Automatic annotation (TrEMBL), chains A, B:
EC top class named in words: isomerase
Organism, scientific name: Edaphochlamys debaryana
Listed name of the protein: DNA topoisomerase 6 subunit B
Residues reported in the UniProt entry to bind ATP: N45, D155, T176, K177, G185, K186, F187, G188, L189, G190, A191, K192, K511
Subunit details: Homodimer. Heterotetramer of two TOP6A and two TOP6B subunits.
Annotated Gene Ontology cellular component terms: DNA topoisomerase type II (double strand cut, ATP-hydrolyzing) complex; nucleus
Amino acid sequence: MAPKAKADALQQKSPAEFFAENKNIAGFDNPGKCLYTTVRELVENALDAAESISELPHIEITIEEVSKARLNRIRGVEHHDRLDEQLYQDFESEEAKKKRLAKEAKDKEKLQKLIDKHGEGAAPVEAERKKMAAAAKAAGGAMRGNLFYRVTVKDNGAGMPHRDIPNMLGRVLSGTKYGVKQTRGKFGLGAKMALIWSKMTTGLPFEIVSARPGAANKSHYVLDIDIHRNEPNVHKEETLPNPGGWHGSELGLTIEGNWSHYRSYIVRYLRQIAVITPYAAFTFAYKAEEEKNSLRINFRRRTDVMPPPPRATKHHPSSVDLELVKRLLKATEAKSLTVFLRKEFDCVSAALAERLVDEMQMGVEGDMSPRNLTDKQVVRLHQLLHEVRFDDPRGDHLSPAGEYNLRLGVMKEVHPDLIATHQGDVKVFEGHAFIVEAAVSVGGRDVKSGINSYRFANRIPLLFEQGSDVITKTAQKRINWAAYKINQAADKVGVFVSIVSTKIPFKGAGKEYIGDDVEEMVAAVKAAIQACCVQLKTKIVRAIAAREQKLRKKNLTKCIPDAANAIFSVLERMAKREAGEGEEDPDDGGPGGAEDGAGGAKRRRLAPPPVRDDKGLLPAVARRELTAATLAARLTEYVERIDTDMALEYQVQQGLAAGIAKEPLYLMPLSSRHSHGPELHANTCVVRLLSGYT
Amino acid sequence: MAPKAKADALQQKSPAEFFAENKNIAGFDNPGKCLYTTVRELVENALDAAESISELPHIEITIEEVSKARLNRIRGVEHHDRLDEQLYQDFESEEAKKKRLAKEAKDKEKLQKLIDKHGEGAAPVEAERKKMAAAAKAAGGAMRGNLFYRVTVKDNGAGMPHRDIPNMLGRVLSGTKYGVKQTRGKFGLGAKMALIWSKMTTGLPFEIVSARPGAANKSHYVLDIDIHRNEPNVHKEETLPNPGGWHGSELGLTIEGNWSHYRSYIVRYLRQIAVITPYAAFTFAYKAEEEKNSLRINFRRRTDVMPPPPRATKHHPSSVDLELVKRLLKATEAKSLTVFLRKEFDCVSAALAERLVDEMQMGVEGDMSPRNLTDKQVVRLHQLLHEVRFDDPRGDHLSPAGEYNLRLGVMKEVHPDLIATHQGDVKVFEGHAFIVEAAVSVGGRDVKSGINSYRFANRIPLLFEQGSDVITKTAQKRINWAAYKINQAADKVGVFVSIVSTKIPFKGAGKEYIGDDVEEMVAAVKAAIQACCVQLKTKIVRAIAAREQKLRKKNLTKCIPDAANAIFSVLERMAKREAGEGEEDPDDGGPGGAEDGAGGAKRRRLAPPPVRDDKGLLPAVARRELTAATLAARLTEYVERIDTDMALEYQVQQGLAAGIAKEPLYLMPLSSRHSHGPELHANTCVVRLLSGYT
């Protein structure tokens, strides 16, 4: 890195140096993103720590704005007045100032012209205003390196062993989560990258307070990292009394960042992690230098049911490479090859181990020590492991969020009109078990029209690079939404997919998205979303039917007054005629004479037959007992009844559709002296009639 | 990694282990991609090696299929017959076989039914066939670990120093390209990742032959890597005579891969690297076990002009972080702070260094040793470097492809109808200079309708993850193509963008795409594409005009026979009347009598006036000198002439538009005894008339 080194001199980098120089690989792209990634890495570590001891997590996150002046005070660098004003970036020469003022005046004039032409508030005026604002911002805000924050995350987790703390936090690629186990972190990078970033920007160290459960003391460390050597550099180490029996960790560091650019991401991240971890409580506080810019959000715990924590498992034989086989053989404590196979691999029984050893041939015996295998025998073993069919891992070591939690989260997040959830079966890729859970929602608050995907991997939300992610791509391109009566463009569709696995095929160490090239995962994601859609389709079809029914009722109801009046006027006239039999209807006869002469007999009406009035309507009309109002009331009643009938029928159908068969459930009399007669079947119960008692 | 380690035991990974476990970060996602990435990493190293000694690169790439049987022979593992057939993945129990056959029969029946219904070749039939083929493939081809390849890449580059070879190839994060310099490789990962992959899959080592220019001996190594220790593991080391004075490197290794899945990517990569490196020759051979599947492609050198190689530069003050400042201070050989500032940083003159030291205050003096700065003074220096305005780096250390090379490449790649190229100015992000070059083409061979982007970074093609790339995103979303008369959906548009920089903000170590979040880069890419579009617009407008002109000519020509006939028939009749003066026109008078009675005098025709026939057309017609054919010939001539005139005018306009002013260029007579009269100006030349000779 030293620029004077000969161009082709060979240099060796420590992993810390490598990641310091290529921060973006770990999600530390720019100051704003660094702030975001720091928060999420610390939060995920905190959740893992609490879950590892089956404690309901309570995480406190604080981001405190640190002005440059304050930072300098902390670092012991006093403020210095500028001596040579012209050196600085924000220095403006007389000429530049003149130019700027001229430009501003011109812009203003242009704006005024636009206002005169289009009127205040018109689109072109607003566009011009926006442009001017952007230019002003670009001119003023381009200077980097002025925004600093102290990030603190406190949990109630397992804490860290006192002597391990320096290595856990001050050494890149060191960690406790490297086993075959579903964990949020995996790379051993997150917290260390935050520390490297703080060292690169503020130079201030990490501050750690930590206590293990039941410990009488808590550890207090102040440390940073020697990037060149990839070694922790301890400034202060002490143990403090822990009278309250507190356990957990509190980590604090000061970094450059950009709250205003990444505020929405940080808040979205916290909202989504609260969605997928409803058994955790989060309190978040942003403390600005000016109180009015501060922000405080609490995400309350919404359930006390914590999914069983994931367990470490063994390597599946089909997932191991040649190198790993060698390492396992070297590290094993097993005395014989058969025991080695059984103990170190998943899905290998004692009997299968025997068969494998027999199949190896090449002079391999089951009771030979694993360390004594020759290189060629190892190659043969590796090859055999890939040729033999093993059972798939069972996946009981995984800890999916659970349909209940997922549904709870979605309900809270988007308040949808409709929701369906599905948990897929355990699937396998390259010997790693994985489970896909999905929820699909339609409608709701704050949801845009179209497909909105929410992605979770090992129960962390993924917010970036969604265009390339397997979940987004599947939701957008591989689901025929129309087949499920969902309008991909117009409906507000939420697609929530959570994948858990001992190995998530992330692209990049930043854990930002899952590649689209693992076929097994593509298929599983698609199947899970489709399963939700099938459930939704039934509901949507029913909802459409209900909406139509409602509409029909509304239309019928609207017609009632007119219909009632019309019927009544007919009845009234009939009643009148019934009353005065011989009286001629004024509409009939009379003025029709001229036509009679021309048109002939065919247009002459027959005398009306006597009305059959079994129900005695006409006398009722005559007596004013039956009026238009009473007719309207009866019609309304009738429309309502149809509605109720259909609703009942609908409920019954829904019950049947949902597979709720009627169960025989009797309150049995205590004695057998009763005799029963016929059964009366109603929709919701069956009544047996008592026919005798002896 | 050992599964029996306590779940929360702290483990330390070597960088080699880290990348072995997270291969996908470096572009080693799956066997097919690994084959692709291995080829490209070796090819890029080879190009860098040749360019570093300004040698026109000649690269030979061979991929040789190695069957499993042959691999086993090489590894000394003989073939073994299966003893326990039921163990294997491809074993099919009687029951499974019965099931499969039943399913196949059923599928066949279904297919037959579809054929009966829709007819052979109909869409549903083909879809069903495809489904069946996919199912058969999935059932048979799912087994991994059977496809192996030997990859060899040979170059004529700088070679490697004998004693450095093990560390250069057998240690992750060690390299020669870590300076501030534009290079293809950067991470010190590529070749080592290929070695790790070979170790994980075949266990076979790297074989290297290398010689420096002018060396009497060449080095021969066989080595692999101890992944756990991140150390080279040398199997064989020797020096061989080098009588021919050859220099360069030849690397060979055997890996698992998948040629058929990634063949198209490998070929596309080679095509594109040939496009952007037209001064290099590439020969590629794929040797399959069966000769008929082999493939051979040569990419010839198309120019001998090699752009000047990039040079290493110094850190720009605005790009350094606190950590780097500390490291530079520690490593410098400068005796005083002012010398340190001038020597270690770009764009810092001696005078500026003095001013900077003065501005630091805090008791800092220009002649104090850089090593004696206190921590606080270092913090102050770092802060100052970010507050002060420095000149932007000049970018003359970069080596862009050049517009000429880019155009050459595009012409060869797509044979476009129209092309425009543009090289942007040197721009800067985070203190790193970068240059964006672009070419936009319209039309051509093998180009799909719509925007096709071709991306290059430090002169390597990027093929993957294009959806998230700054170039694709800019081309797709930030260019208003319609404004340049380009139809974004229907036209065949090729967008070629090449970015060179001392730091390319790649996302991930796989060098697959450039993130979309560096504003300076977004702006520069947009500007470069737009500059091409502006050029194209003129051409397109002209092409449209030319097309319209051609169309008009075609239409006019089409009308000529009819027009000639019509005119001639008129002339003929006129000539006849002229000949027999008193003869009455048969159309006139006679049958009009009845109407005369009704309509009156206004409809009566006047006697035709005598024809003015100045050109003597009518006699010519009468003499049969002017016929329809001669008329047609004259009209054709006229249409042609208009066309020629317009073409001339068009060319002149084009010349003027392109800024080609007419230069006075005379063949001067040797003596001055000539006198010249007036000048005759034509479109393309000026003629001076000779008026006298003394």
